[in-house]
Amino acid sequence: MDQTEPKPSARPALPTKAREAMEQLNTEAGNLNIWLRTQANAPAQRPWFRDAEIDTAGSMASGRVGAGQLKAAPYRWRWKEISPYLHRIAEVAKNADVPPVEFADRQQFLLTNPGLGGRLQVANTIRCAVSIYNPHDVAGVHLHTPNASRTILSENGGYTTVDGERCMAGRGDLILTPHGTWHDHGNDSTDPVIWMDVLDWPLMEFLDCIWLDEQFPGETTGKARAQTPTRREGYSKSLYGAGGMLPGIDSHQRGIAHEATPMIHFRGKDIRATLDALKGQAHDPHEGTPLRFTNPVTGEPLFPTLDYTAQLLAPGEQTLMKRETASRLYVVLEGRGSTEVGKEQFDWEENDIFVLPNFLWRRHRNTGSKDAVLYAVSDLPLLEKIGQYRAQGRAAGGKLVQLAD
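Structure (tokenized):
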């Protein structure tokens, strides 16, 4: 992509009288639910790759089409500011003796992006919530069309049972509930448990493909209707956790999901050990020491719409600048540091969550004395499938380089 090509000239404005006449026609036709086009189909922004400045992500267009599009903003949610509300929610539910599903559907709050007009999403394709479960809480068995995951933020993470496999969780664990898999959640411990939920809900909603089923055909236990486990704990890891060795079974199908990953539980201690093993062996100047989670059967991302990664930054390490057409949501599992995005800087520490929308330049820095570990979720697989994923970076000397084109 040539950064020196001239920008195209703007289209001439429609003459005032002609515009007024067209708008009058639109007023008359309004009850027919039609719009008589009065201007060019203005996109949301100029070509992002031609604006090489650090603070540029494409300027919003004017006009009915472009102005109607919302753009996500980079944003950080500080754990010390948002977590008290979890405990207040949990206390209300505890005093009322109300289970999670009956209490406002879940004991959680959803994160909203200030650029998206109050929509329940952090990026155009990603929803994120943070949930708390009191001791003995259970969310009964159900399935839904969105793909979902839990990242455990408390030391004890309760459990999620997915397609008959009960996953007892701890901090840093990643548990997947692929679309169309029966699952339930609960807390058998004596302390509240907290996790971060991530779903591709906005995409499914846009496609009018949201539905949920609670009529589980199998055996359940208790009034809350948790599914009775039919597979031993650690089943998916015993089959698929060895890497490079695929079990020779007839089907890797989980639930009614199409091509869903059969590996549904990644343990935080294993993720950390793998990152430690990669230090000094595999390094990306734009990402630090990276790790990508994949479907062990296909080698593809865990979901066709969402990609999951972890990355480690050594003390004092700073990555080089990078931007991409995918949006990324981060959560800090260990350490402290800062992320530059455009002209903004987000300082972060343990459990902080931040989102970096597409097109924006970013770089991370570990400002602490210990390793920093970030988990991230992005819509990269979706962009790849429709031929729209691209990435650029800056070399050490500042030269622009194509990372994915």
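Confidence is low (pLDDT under 50) at residues 1-9. DSSP finds seven helices and 25 strands in the chain.
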